[in-house]
């Protein structure tokens, strides 16, 4: 196995990880920013006010995008399994 092939596998793995994590985290970050602006505008300093909407948004994103996330992970896994003969031999 050449170092270039290993770097390509590693690059693709990082790409899959960043894609999956961003689909989960970005909606929560956007909602957290909106709630923080609302809290700053109204001078409300309640910590649970920012936590609950972010939690619900993250759970909602997992419900909606769960199929796509699992499909992406399965495609990457199957691609890695198909590369085993090339890596070993």
From TrEMBL:
The chain crosses the membrane at residues 12-39, 51-70. It is found in: Cell membrane; Bacterial flagellum basal body. GO terms for cellular component: bacterial-type flagellum basal body; plasma membrane. Keywords: Bacterial flagellum, Cell membrane, Cell projection, Cilium, Flagellum, Membrane, Transmembrane, Transmembrane helix. Its main location: membrane. InterPro entries: Bac_export_3, FliQ. One of its GO terms (biological process) is bacterial-type flagellum assembly. It is a multi-pass membrane protein. Belongs to the FliQ/MopD/SpaQ family. Role in flagellar biosynthesis. This is Flagellar biosynthetic protein FliQ. It comes from Shewanella insulae. The lineage of its organism: Bacteria, Pseudomonadati, Pseudomonadota, Gammaproteobacteria, Alteromonadales. The gene is fliQ.
